Amino acid sequence: MKKILNLALIGFALASCGGAAKKTTEEVTDSTLITCEAIGKVKLNYSHADLEKEFGVDQLVDTVKDVEGKKVSITKVFKDTPDEVTVTWAEASAPFTKAVKLSVSDGSGPYHLAEDIKVGSPLKDLVKANNFLPVTFTNFYANVDGFAQIQSFNDGDLAQKYPCLGGVLDIDRTDNLETSLLEEFKKENPANSNHKAMNFIYANVVELNISAK
């Protein structure tokens, strides 16, 4: 009986170690995930004080940026590194207590969805992860900067799993796109990824973001 008990204890100990190892692996993976709660270790519900406590004042840079003609306050966490995350605040000035958006735009950064979508991913991969339902976005050619803002995942898998998810697209290249088809596409705003012209327009994700609801 004693021998059986010892074997049981050994088995339990090994199982516990395996569980701990699995948990550690999951935690490492989670530190690069984009979810509706966080991008990596930066949580959407963090205040500026929380960021200071979690990462240190020296890892934060407060500034402003222009969004559609309006100045908004932001904080860059890990600025100028692949790990950079931009926090957009609800408040115009300090103290900052409520984040409205987190975003990443470095293609060499580690952050990704569980579906392995990240900055730099082709639009077609985004559509695939959306169970091949179209992605709706502002027309590239309607914006001075040439970027397209993702507006909807049209009740696809990404819409169901990430109601918080947004992003920005940019054209990488066009290939054998007829002028008449391009002109037809330019009239669409918003546009959809299943438009005929998108068979010849190759676009990539240049920003991923999550927003508070």
Radius of gyration: 22 Å
Arrangement of strands in the largest sheet: 3-4-5-6-11-9-8-7-10
- Total strand segments: 11
From the N-terminal CA to the C-terminal CA, the straight-line distance is 59 Å
Major sheet details? 9 strands, antiparallel
Number of separate helices:
5
Shape: globular
Report the helical percentage. 25-40%
Strand content: 25-35%
> Which structural class is indicated by helix and strand composition?
alpha+beta
Helix and strand succession?
A: HEEHEEEEHEEHEHEE
Unreliable spans are: 1-14, 20-29
Overall pLDDT, averaged?
90
Signal peptide: 1-20
Keywords: Signal
Describe this structure in words.
By secondary structure, the protein is α+β, with helices and mostly antiparallel strands. Helices cover 27% and strands 29% of the residues. It has five helices and eleven strands, in the order αββαββββαββαβαββ. The protein is globular and about 55 Å long. The model is unreliable at 1-14 and 20-29 (pLDDT under 50).
